[in-house]
Amino acid sequence: MELRVMFPSTLIIRLHIQLVLAMSVIANQPRCRTTCSNHSIRFPFGIDNGCGSPHLPMICVNDSILQIVVDSKPFFVDEIDYTHSTLLLRDPSMSNCRSVNSNSAGFDLNLDGTGLTLRQGSTVLLLNCLSFAQEINFLNDQYDCHNPTCLAFLGSCHTNELLTSCCRVTYPHNRINLFPMQCMSYTSIYSPENPIFNPPSWSYGIEVQWSLPSETNDACNKCEARNGICGFNVEEPNHPFMCICESSLGCKDCILGSCTGRRIRKLIVGFSLAGTLMLSACAILVLFLRHRNRFKKLRYGLSTDILHYGEIEDKHTGMELAHVLATTTGPLPLTIFSYKELEHATAAFSETQMIGDGAYGMVYKAKFYDGRVLAVKRLNHQHHRQLQQFYNEIRILSQLRHPNLVQLEGFCLQGRNLLLVYEYICNGTVEDHLHGEDGIRAARLPWEKRLNIACDVADALAYLHFSISPPIYHRDVKSSNILLDQHMKAKVADFGLSRLVPVDATHVSTGPQGTPGYVDPEYHECYQVSDKSDVYSFGVVLLEMLTGKRAVDLNRPRNEINLSAYAIAKIQGNALHEILDPRIFSAGRQRQAATQVANLAFSCVALPREARPTMKEVAAQLHLIRSAPFKTP
């Protein structure tokens, strides 16, 4: 016998009215949360939109963990000192002596342009660096591998046999980079009042300092004196400061007395919410019980990748699926956008807003009411794999945070509309720059920038292969999936074909997918993809940047259609100079570095795949090539 609970219509109306009244009061409250765990959150930081500097966004995870995003990477915030304008940060990938292992890998951290600077209280130690790289870098005195602090650290960690070496960064810096010396990880010791030779007393963290213009500090002091809350107005970049007042959100200066009465309003909100919650508790409980089994089935379908789009459309609403997606993905917060919101932000998906297209959908530039500019990918309705691509990209990107990976901001699922929302990368793709019709962009992509792009992409792929558990194979590395920001920094995109790899697995069997010219030839023989499949694709990208030629071009002679085969023949015949891009390698400039990169690309596309280097080895070699001075005739 099924138990049904019926609510009188008057009760439903009463619930609705009280909710509207309560929410109308809440709407007049300042939007800024001021605490997270035991941290006080105030200017210039904020958790909510508009409440803090957009350059230093903070995230409060479950009201217990405070993080700040610096250089597109999350750090744990251990301390905030508003008196001295300092933060004590902890890198989730940072090692102490207990966590160092042979497979650990950290991040390249660059504070330039973030408004933060490293303080002298932080001692940065690079761990498990390769010996030959140490010898090379001794020449420029940037690293000290016999520093007393390093010796003390190694001595305190003598029980960890996987910790083999330590080098202290000695030069004035605002950047932590593991790759020049091919180091596995790093740590930063912060102990301003503790003896340097007493490792048990050390604290691990990175101390940074923030700074603001004096006029901004003065405006904030004036705002707080009048019971306002200091915030940022992202819609006015020339006048970003905003005083958030209870009666007039967005004013630059609260009128004296206009930000009073907050306690009375809080009492009204409290009583309204209490009554509303009591009346609606039964309704929520009944709805929860009715839909629990339905959500379980939907969650199971998502987690096992056996979804069929038609079945979902018939049995479940888009909003239900959207919320299940948000709870079955990784730890990074995602926003569920409405279709109407995205339609408005893209001018009804106007062709004038379209910035890219492909087999799986089109990408649009979207400008939102709060001033944010994002990119929206609208998946193709007719493609039979669209839902798998949609969920796969959400599942993968929701657990990744790396400066050289495109960040997923959120998604939309309403009816048959599947949309993914990313950070907006303004400078197009590497393919656009290399193969544009007028050739002007390629001329603006000199060798130094191409080498920087190669290092960025290699770092991202090494992160996917070695810093994520389980590792991730991208499976569609190509020049059109490498985006460039305003500083020509590369970001890898399009994870629709990517695969999470079971722990201890050396390869994954899949059906034929990928882009011709970039796909590992052995993949067509055994349909097994491994990390070396990404290495092969990256090798083709290196050849593209060296030659300026497309990976596949049917307009070329038959023996030159496939760039990989064509370039290998030239390299083996000592005729590399015949295929180097004349737009950047004229008159023999930088030929030595180009030859080194060509040899590396040759090893990346080697057969069999076991002969190829790992992406970690490729990244390390590229950084060494970049750090060496270019020799010109």
UniProtKB/TrEMBL annotation:
GO terms for molecular function: ATP binding; polysaccharide binding; protein serine/threonine kinase activity. One of its GO terms (cellular component) is membrane. Residues 349-626 form the Protein kinase domain. It is a single-pass membrane protein. It is found in: Membrane. The chain crosses the membrane at residues 267-289. PROSITE patterns: PROTEIN_KINASE_ATP, PROTEIN_KINASE_DOM, PROTEIN_KINASE_ST. Pfam families: GUB_WAK_bind, Pkinase. ATP binds at K377. Residues 1-22 form the signal peptide. SUPFAM superfamilies: Protein kinase-like (PK-like). Keywords: ATP-binding, Glycoprotein, Kinase, Membrane, Nucleotide-binding, Serine/threonine-protein kinase, Signal, Transferase, Transmembrane, Transmembrane helix. Gene3D superfamilies: Phosphorylase Kinase, domain 1, Transferase(Phosphotransferase) domain 1. SMART domains: S_TKc. InterPro entries: Kinase-like_dom_sf, Prot_kinase_dom, Protein_kinase_ATP_BS, Ser/Thr_kinase_AS, WAK_GUB. This is Protein kinase domain-containing protein.
